[in-house]
TrEMBL record:
This is Uncharacterized protein. It is found in: Nucleus. One of its GO terms (cellular component) is anaphase-promoting complex. It comes from the Eukaryota. The keyword Nucleus applies. PANTHER family: CELL DIVISION CYCLE 16,23,27, CELL DIVISION CYCLE PROTEIN 27 HOMOLOG. Residues 1-44, 68-95 are annotated as: Disordered. TPR repeats lie at residues 289-322, 323-356, 357-390, 459-492. Keywords: Nucleus, Repeat, TPR repeat. Coiled coil: none annotated. Belongs to the APC3/CDC27 family. It comes from Liquidambar formosana. Residues 32-42, 78-95 have a biased composition (Polar residues). The keyword Signal does not apply.
């Protein structure tokens, strides 16, 4: 045996060897080549153990050399390091833990049982190796402060120096966190209040609330779009276009409110801007209903109602729950005098959104043209209940009431419409019409003289004044105002009406009514 093992390192002593002599079976096993390999592995293992202990000691030396935030904390940390037995708290978290995240999870797994002297080096060094690989000791001190809630000394230290809390891997002062949370909640409160008022169509109140936002939050795409919608509901198209333009500049690829922006440009007759907007939206997203609503408004402004209808139907195909696209389809059907399909489109929009007042208004207009006055008054009143601040809805509701021979109610509604929006000429004109029907010509002329200041180039105003002068047998003034109305280039229907009134200028009203 000595001859066979002369060139091999002697194997380690076996603790279970008998004192009287070696076990023959054990010696036979040790004399095999596998014994040689095992002895070599064990030799390397002993060397690895020494390196691990050296790394552990060096880590402690380096960690102790870093200045502590508190000498009291340094003493407690040293005491925890030198203890022979480290136990796990009742909730599964060690009080000597100095780390967060995945390092904490691995250490808890290693410390799930009590670590004692004489235990394998792997369990002893599990948390130390992970600790120094993931975090430095200065950061681990801060984490130990926040995780040791049961230590009264650490609690007093936190109260004296200010609590430190981990947020997304970054340690911040608790006062700063509370201040930031309070600021965010205040910002969300303002945004929510403004949006709530907009949904209630209290548009001026919503604008006042949005003005409370800081400058950097006000000049964002979403907020400016909401401001543009509010001005649109207030029939202030110039301010609405300005707000939407700023929203496009702040968020060039945003689609929020662009369908309303296209309608604003439609009312302002800005055909070039509307065409450019439609092309930009289609190039941005061809599958968005807002893009095709803008394209439809572009063709509708050019009086190409059939092509406009196809574009609005395309928007409905892309999103059947987009109520405004159904309403725009209804407007085009009415322009094409297809009232049956127009009513179906408006009703489809109301099935999606019962508070979409534009569809109630559209149905009221259809029934007013069909002279179904009770239906018209009902639908206009429904729209008025949803949006009680719209002067346009008040004006047409007053018109329906006047057609139903309820002149006093109609006159009261027109007064409310004038107070709601003094810049809107429609209720003033309708009020003058109602006064003429009640034969209160002097009051009607006063209203029309005031209206000329708001709409100096409106031919219908001069035509109605000519009619009043004719009823009062003031033929020269009547002829003057009829001529002014023709000079302002009214529509073909109005031209025919004005010329007929000029031909019958000297015919008494009683005979004219019989004719």
């Amino acid at each position: 045996m000595a001859t066979q093992l002369s060139g091999v390192a002697p194997p380690p002593l076996c603790r279970n060897a008998q004192p009287n002599g070696p076990n023959p079976s054990a010696l036979g096993a040790d004399s095999s080549p596998r014994s040689t390999v095992n002895s070599t592995i064990q030799a390397h293992r002993r060397k690895f153990v020494d390196e691990g202990k050296l790394r552990k000691i060096s880590g402690r030396l380096f960690s102790d050399s870093i200045p502590r935030r508190s000498t009291r904390l340094a003493g407690e940390t040293g005491a925890n390091t030198n203890t022979s037995s480290t136990t796990v708290a009742g909730n599964g978290t060690s009080h000597s833990s100095k780390y967060l995240g995945g390092a904490k999870l691995s250490s808890v797994a290693c410390r799930s049982v009590t670590v004692r002297k004489g235990q394998s080096w792997a369990n002893e060094n599990c948390d130390e190796g992970t600790r120094h690989d993931v975090f430095d000791d200065s950061r681990s001190n801060i984490t130990a402060m926040t995780s040791s809630s049961s230590s009264s000394g650490i609690t007093r230290s936190l109260e004296q120096e200010g609590a430190i809390m981990p947020v997304g891997g970054v340690f911040m002062n608790s006062s700063r966190i509370l201040g930031g949370a309070s600021e965010i909640l205040g910002l969300l409160r303002i945004l929510g209040e403004g949006y709530r008022l907009s949904c209630m169509y209290r548009c001026q109140d919503a604008l006042d609330v949005y003005l409370k936002l800081p400058h950097k939050h006000y000049n964002t795409g979403w907020v400016l779009s909401q401001v543009g919608k509010a001005y649109f509901e207030l029939v202030d198209y110039l301010e609405a276009a300005r707000a939407f333009s700023l929203a496009r500049r702040a968020c060039p690829h945003g689609l929020e409110g662009m369908d309303v922006y296209s309608t604003v440009l439609y009312h302002l007759k800005e055909d070039m801007k509307l065409s450019y907007l439609a092309q930009e939206l289609v190039s941005t997203d061809r599958l968005a209903p807002q893009s095709w609503c803008a394209m439809g408004n572009c063709y509708s402004l050019q009086k190409d109602h059939e092509t406009a209808l196809k574009n609005f139907q395309r928007a409905v195909q892309l999103n059947s729950r987009f109520a405004y696209a159904h309403t725009l389809c209804g407007h085009e059907y009415v322009a094409l005098e297809d009232y049956e399909n127009g009513i179906k489109s408006y009703q489809s929009a109301l099935r999606i959104d019962a508070r979409h007042y534009n569809s109630w208004y559209g149905l009221g207009m259809v029934y007013l043209r069909q002279e179904k006055l009770e239906f018209s008054e009902h639908h206009f009143r429904m729209a008025f209940q949803i949006n009680p601040r719209s002067s346009v809805i008040m004006s047409y509701l007053g018109t329906a009431l006047h057609a139903l021979k309820r002149s006093e109610d109609a006159l009261e509604m027109m007064e409310r419409a004038i107070l709601a929006d003094k810049k809107n000429p429609l209720p003033m004109y309708q009020k003058a019409n109602i006064l003429v029907s009640m034969e209160r010509f002097g009051e009607a002329l006063e209203v029309l003289e005031e209206l000329k200041e708001y709409a100096p180039r409106e031919s219908s105003v001069y035509a109605l004044m000519g009619k009043i002068y004719k009823r009062r047998n003031m033929h020269e003034k009547a002829m003057l105002h009829f001529g002014l109305a023709l000079d302002l280039k009214p529509s073909a229907t109005d031209v025919a009406t004005i010329k007929a009134a000029i031909e019958k200028l000297h015919v008494p009203d009683e005979i004219e009514d019989n004719l």
